[in-house]
Specification:
Length: 116
């Protein structure tokens, strides 16, 4: 079992940047991959980006070239650097940890609001 705590959300103008952090505690050695998801009001939760334990990153087309996911294993922290933010990026952002055994744990979410 792992616990995840996100931080770094806030209000930013279009074109601005934010960096989200996700600190992981518990059985961190069981984690295979880390992902970021987001959920806008009235919409389903969607996958944003993911990074494997080896550092391989993948992105949704909507954020490719603007967002960067990274992980610092020594700090048990995963980051999402978000640049060139758009109003349509407004959502609650969640980090998720996928374990080697097939389970998934979620953080509580952090609100990102991009004003036009």
């Amino acid at each position: 079992q792992v616990q995840l705590v996100e931080s770094g959300g806030g209000l930013v103008q279009a074109g601005g940047s934010l960096r989200l952090s996700c600190v992981v505690s518990g059985n961190i050695f069981s984690i295979a991959a880390m992902d970021w998801y987001r959920q806008a009001p009235g919409k389903q939760r969607e996958w944003v980006a993911g990074v494997t334990s080896g550092g391989r990153a993948n992105y949704a087309e909507s954020v490719k070239g603007r967002f960067t996911i990274s992980r610092d294993n020594a700090k048990a922290t995963t980051y999402l650097q978000m640049n060139s933010l758009k109003p349509e990026d407004t959502a609650v952002y969640y980090c998720a940890a996928d374990s080697l055994f097939g389970s998934r744990n979620w953080g509580q979410g952090t609100q990102v609001t991009v004003s036009s």
